[in-house]
Each structure stands twice: as structure tokens, then as C-alpha cells.
């Protein structure tokens, strides 16, 4: 889709710090980095939200989650991990391309979902994190 920022990332028009890629799925660091390693997992074919997603596409995307989550755990040893997926503006979706947030949680995090979305590390820092995690993808 022409105006979709994630489609532009997939097309190489906008840079990203890639964590994982195969024929159907792309995972990259969220520019906000709520916590170190905060990753987005998306289907390569544009679909707006879970309501519009073909079950086979959902299966491909969600089946990659354990592999990527385990790489994050092996790399940074978080105390936990939130998996977050918003559907529709009312639910907090801001980019209308299906995406799943993997948010590692650490000792200094607050309890619950009091997440801070304003962190913006520079491209070098993002690429360093991506390189570290990518080494642990099995």
C-alpha cells in the first residue's frame, strides 16, 4: 500500500534495523524502543489488522514469534516479555499494517503496561541491538 510506512520499510524506501526475515515475515526494531530489543513482527503482504488478515497469513506471522522472542531472551535476558497487538484506532493502532510488538521487560521497568513510547535511539544504536539479537536467531 502506497502510504503505509511498513510497506515502505519492506520496499527499502525507509531504513530499518532488521532482526529476522523470510519469504512471508519481517521483524525489525521499533524506532520507539519502549525497552531494549522492542521488536515489531509484520507480514510482508499488506493487511490492515487482525480482522482483515487471512488465517494462513496470521499463522505464518504468529508462528515466528517464539523464534524471535527466544533470540531476544538469549541476547538480553529480560525478566519477561509482553506481546502486544492493537487493532483499530480505538485500540491504539497507529500504523495500519498488521504488526505484533515484542516488548522485553527488565528489572527497572514499571509494573503493568505503564510503557513509555517516546524513546528514540539513533540508527547506530538500533543497528547494534539488531546485530546482537540476529546472532541469536536459531
From TrEMBL:
<feature type="domain" description="HIT">
    <location>
        <begin position="5"/>
        <end position="112"/>
    </location>
</feature>
<dbReference type="Pfam" id="PF01230">
    <property type="entry name" value="HIT"/>
</dbReference>
<dbReference type="InterPro" id="IPR039384">
    <property type="entry name" value="HINT"/>
</dbReference>
<dbReference type="InterPro" id="IPR011146">
    <property type="entry name" value="HIT-like"/>
</dbReference>
<dbReference type="InterPro" id="IPR019808">
    <property type="entry name" value="Histidine_triad_CS"/>
</dbReference>
<feature type="short sequence motif" description="Histidine triad motif">
    <location>
        <begin position="97"/>
        <end position="101"/>
    </location>
</feature>
<dbReference type="InterPro" id="IPR036265">
    <property type="entry name" value="HIT-like_sf"/>
</dbReference>
<dbReference type="InterPro" id="IPR001310">
    <property type="entry name" value="Histidine_triad_HIT"/>
</dbReference>
<protein>
    <submittedName>
        <fullName>HIT family protein</fullName>
    </submittedName>
</protein>
Amino acid at each position: 500500500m502506497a502510504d503505509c510506512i511498513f510497506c515502505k520499510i519492506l520496499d527499502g524506501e525507509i531504513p530499518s534495523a532488521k532482526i529476522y526475515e523470510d519469504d512471508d515475515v519481517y521483524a525489525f526494531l521499533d524506532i520507539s524502543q519502549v525497552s531494549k530489543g522492542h521488536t515489531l513482527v509484520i507480514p510482508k503482504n499488506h493487511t490492515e489488522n487482525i480482522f482483515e488478515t487471512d488465517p494462513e497469513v496470521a499463522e505464518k506471522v504468529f508462528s515466528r514469534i517464539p523464534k524471535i522472542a527466544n533470540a531476544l531472551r538469549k541476547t538480553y535476558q529480560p525478566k519477561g516479555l509482553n506481546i502486544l497487538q492493537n487493532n483499530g484506532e480505538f485500540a491504539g493502532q497507529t500504523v495500519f499494517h498488521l504488526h505484533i510488538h515484542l516488548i522485553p521487560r527488565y528489572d527497572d521497568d514499571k509494573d503493568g503496561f505503564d510503557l513509555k513510547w517516546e524513546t528514540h535511539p539513533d540508527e547506530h544504536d538500533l543497528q547494534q541491538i539488531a546485530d546482537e539479537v540476529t546472532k541469536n536467531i536459531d
